[in-house]
Amino acid sequence: MNIRNICIGALALSMVSGVSFAGALDSPDNMAPFFVDSGMKTMKPKAEFKAAWDSMAKDKQDAMMKECQDAAMSKPHAEFCANLQALGGAN
Description:
mainly alpha; 6 helices; signal
């Protein structure tokens, strides 16, 4: 009985914590405005990138900038984060 409870608790914890790993940079809704293709492989030109950034809500901008400043979180999004840094971050 005790081992069963431990296993169930571990499973529940892994399910809950898995959601917390997805951040602002992993959300297709947040990232899509910055890319020209649906596969999000080609970023928009700098002027369009800046326009997409400027039209984004401040709370989303802050979350994205925070993740770009975290080396582990930003690594898969290095090119995107470099573009944000070039813009000077949030306005």
